[in-house]
Amino acid sequence: MNPITNSTIKRKTKKYRICNGASPLRILITAGPTREPIDPVRFITNHSTGTMGYAIAESASRSGHRVTLITGPSPSLKRPHRTKIISVVTAKEMFGAVKKNSKLSNCVVMSAAVADYKPKKYFSRKLKRTKEIRNIGLEKNPDILSWLGENKQDKILVGFCMETEKLLKNAKRKMHTKRTDLMVANRINKACPPFGTNRTSVVILGPDKTELRIKHATKKYIAGILLDKIEDLWYKKLQN
Ligand code: CTP
User: Fold this and answer.
1) What span, in angstroms and rounded, lies between the C-alpha atoms of 137 and 135?
2) What is the distance in A from the centroid of ligand 1 to the CA of 182?
3) In this structure, is residue 1 part of a structural domain?
4) Is the pTM of this model over 0.85?
């Protein structure tokens, strides 16, 4: 496997663009965090800002693809160019929107950071911190990407994997169990925090065990490279 760094990667000429004959993708992208309400004041969430997913949507729509973006709360981001936006809050709402909109898509990119658990029930009054809040109880949210993998048909599926340790081992496992074609592995560390910054480092795992390392690049740049990979897979499917 050749580790490729930014200095060696040049974005390929867009030989597969729709202006050259290939049909556009109907691409569904999820982005941002989900929020799981506990009571009128509190919720469970994570640090995702949605920047990566929005960058992928922007890159895809500027390349001529038909893009739908299902987004969790990401108030600071600009709407991507010519993109259908569906706003959701909870993992359940995101799952419903994915089920509805993935039917007609030929590629789904799950870059959202879905909260894995939600409170067992929503309390309509504010819980008191002394005892009540400690006893809310949690239940599992649906694993949306696994559902997509089980109902894959001929879709291209792209997953993301964020880890503090054993990055590649976990990313390969998730790629296999969630049946994705591509997996973007993102290490979380102090030197390159993945949340709220414009730059990050990733390894893109592809079919045939390919590993493409991109170090400290802008999310816009990584989105462009990922889109190249998606288009390569799409073009191969069209030829078969
Ligand atoms: N994912 C999802 N639904 C969930 C959790 C995750 O669709 N309930 C998707 C994410 O959007 C991502 C991929 O699964 O594309 C991997 O997410 P990650 O948080 O890295 O892994 P988990 O499956 O949640 O496993 P763990 O938290 O144990 O690492």
Assistant:
1) 6
2) 14
3) no
4) yes
Ligand 1 site, residue 159, Cβ cutoff 6 A? yes
| Binding site membership of 110 for ligand 1 (Cβ less than 6 Å) | yes
Q: Measure 205 CA to ligand 1 centroid, in angstroms.
A: 16
- Over residues 171-200, the pLDDT tens digits come to 999 999 999 999 999 988 777 677 878 899
Cα→Cα distances 164→1, 183, 188, 216, Å: 23, 16, 5, 17
| pLDDT tens-digit map of 208-223 | 899 999 999 999 999 9
Please confirm, yes or no, whether 46 is among the known catalytic residues.
yes
Question: The CATH number of the domain where 209 resides is what?
Answer: 3.40.50.10300
Q: Which of 164-171's residues contact partners 24+ apart within 8 Å by CB, and which partners? A: 164/188, 164/189, 167/203, 168/203, 168/205, 168/211, 171/203, 171/205
Asked whether residue 57 is assigned to any structural domain, the reply reads yes
Q: In total, how many domains does the chain have?
A: 1
